[in-house]
Structure formats: C-alpha cells, structure tokens
Amino acid sequence: MLKFIKDHLATIDGVQIYPIISLSIFFLFFLGLFWWVFTAKKAYIESVKQIPFESKENEAL
Question: Which of 1, 36, 46, 49 has the smallest CB count inside 10 Å?
C-alpha cells in the first residue's frame, strides 16, 4: 500500500514542497498559540476560568 502511494507521489512534480508547507503551518500555529498564552491579559484568563462555574449556577436556578 505504501509503495503504491510512494510511487504515485514520485511522479508529481514539486510534491516535495508539501511536507515543508505542512510542517511550517504546524510550527507557526503552535508558536502563535504559545505567544498568545504568554501575552494574554490576566483579567481575561480569570473571566474565562469562571465560565464553567457560572453556567452551573444558572442551571441550579
């Protein structure tokens, strides 16, 4: 199965760029997420942290 796919992909011109593009997208996404986590405002984090508790209080009423 893998040999069939490998042989088929070898016939496509420029196919070697796709793994590089996908790795770049993966790396940039997690780098952006890492940057967002460390630059997020503490007040926003606290308000988001309270969301599950607020919804449980509303269900009890």
Answer: 1
Q: Assign 3-class secondary structure to the chain.
A: CHHHHHHHHHCCCCCCHHHHHHHHHHHHHHHHHHHHHHHCCHHHHHHHHCHHHHHHHHHHC
Structure tokens at 2: 């893998």
Provide the pLDDT for residue 61: 55
Model-level pTM? 0.59
Domain that holds residue 21: 2-60
Q: How many domains does the chain have?
A: 1
Residue 29's alpha-carbon distances to 38, 42, 45, in angstroms, are 15, 22, 20
